[in-house]
Design goal:
The protein has 93 residues and is mainly alpha-helical. It has one domain. 40% of the residues lie in helices and 9% in strands. Strands 1-2 form a two-stranded antiparallel sheet. The longest helix has 14 residues. The chain is elongated, with a radius of gyration of 15 Å. The two termini are 20 Å apart.
Length: 93
């Protein structure tokens, strides 16, 4: 389900919760997704840009946010018009 992007977390959370968590470049995608579920009762999915595509990071949820970002930047810098790499291809399947 896609929600109105103007809504706040407080407006869409499924449980009464007030909380916070800290994100760093060392936070894994899996830990980020778990934190949203635990703190706010929200299921979230992280996407990473690969070339011109936005792909779900399901095959690389163990990567940190920093690793996801680094991979996306490398794709952008080195392969601006190149095909999707093999790890990203797995995520598309």
């Amino acid at each position: 389900m896609t929600l109105n992007e103007d809504l706040t977390i407080a407006e869409v959370q499924t449980k009464e919760a007030t909380g916070s968590f800290t994100l760093t470049g060392r936070t894994t995608v899996a830990n980020l997704e778990d934190a949203f579920a635990q703190c706010f009762g929200l299921s979230v999915q992280v996407f990473r840009k690969s070339g011109k595509l936005w792909i779900q990071t399901t095959a690389t949820d163990q990567w940190t946010l920093g690793e996801q970002n680094k991979n996306a930047m490398q794709q952008h810098d080195e392969l601006k018009e190149a095909p999707v790499d093999s790890m990203d291809r797995m995520e598309l399947e």
